[in-house]
Amino acid sequence: xxxxxxxxxxxxxxxxxxxxxxxxxxxxxxxxxxxxxxxxxxxxxxxxxxxxxxxxxxxxxxxxxxxxxxxxxxxxxxxxxxxxxxxxxxxxxxxxxxxxxxxxxxxxxxxxxxxxxxxxxxxxxxxxxxxxxxxxxxxxxxxxxxxxxxxxxxxxxxxxxxxxxxxxxxxxxxxxxxxxxxxxxxxxxxxxxxx
Length: 195
Prior knowledge:
mainly alpha
């Protein structure tokens, strides 16, 4: 209406119709951020889901929803979104690393190991992936030590367990050394010294 009036009044000429991309998803995303900052994370999840419906290919919206699930301690939902994110961005090492963390926390160590290895494959200097992989491997050590303590008088069994323990250390050592070579931290130094 205003355009037609401006053309008739000769204050404007050459009118065109131009469509712009919808800002609906962005507006809803901003609402979700505000809700999360107010501590209303459940409501933020509802809003971010609306934003994702408006812009289903937007990986950032998916990751934001995943972040909300971390805040809500809903790791299954977080893991599902990370798997969806990996499909959308299969060369992103951070997504594989996050999947490794989630699956490791769910005691699915073999699956977690694959995710950490994939993160390392995609980013050869990924210190945290090397460190987490070493920690995952070294988890076996506590079980072996417990068995060793139960078999202090059974020398044969104790010696077998000691060999298993050394094998665990040998498996973890290359990942620790790589993490150490990339970034010297208290954790890498302490763990290497313990081994």
